[in-house]
Amino acid sequence: MKKFTPPQLCLIFLLTILCNKVIAQTKNWYASSSYAGNNGESDGTRLRPFTSLQKINSVAEYGDKVFLKRGDVFYGTLAPKDDNIHIADYTDDNFPTPPKISGFIDIWQFSLHQGNIYKCFLATRPKVIAMNGNLLELGRTPNIEAPNGGYYTYNNPGGTDINLYIQAESAGQIDHLAKEVVIRTNNFTIEAKPIIQFDGDKIYYGATTGFNGANNSFAPQHGYGYYFQNGINTLDRHGEWFYDEDQHTLYVYFEGPLQTIQVSNIDVLCDF
User: Does the global pTM surpass 0.85?
Assistant: First the structure.
């Protein structure tokens, strides 16, 4: 039998106490987005679960277990403070559908802007918009089924490393209300650029800069194409949208009755 010296026995004793303390301090947290209460009234137990992932993120610590109720949909990102978190589900009524974490919120309250274009307030520009499970596209001019694959042709590229421009073949191929121009600069690259200004048949746009401040844009090659996007005049097909960052307003083109859309500004659903 191995014998331990008094200092070794003392160390083993302290480590045992420490391990038992860590194990004893781990907790189970419950969350249900359908719970009738709110986070202020909840304590994270099964009887009074939290209602949001944000609350779970703020309380879950090393070794804790998080239980999400089956059949519920949780909005946001599950990102506890510690990586060593165990995730599971629970149910009180044998609900067969597992819980879901979604970055989408529903929007259905629109007001008429003009014609078939409707609008609503939205605090930030959406990253993704969907309707009936299908992604919606930014409005564009010309449309993709137009001649030349939906591209206008530009001529005489030029400018500096900071402000570049392309020259339209005619002033009629310019949308002065568009916020962005998408340029095919060569056979291999297509770049979306913020429009800085218009000058006759010239379209000036901002360069893309890298982490060192250098210009990462490709110089546009003569004879390639461009189209406009993110402008009110680009909306002419069902589901096309435009976001006005100055007015914090989302515009959507609807053909027929208004429909509920789903909007997301979230890049990551789980981060732990």
Answer: no
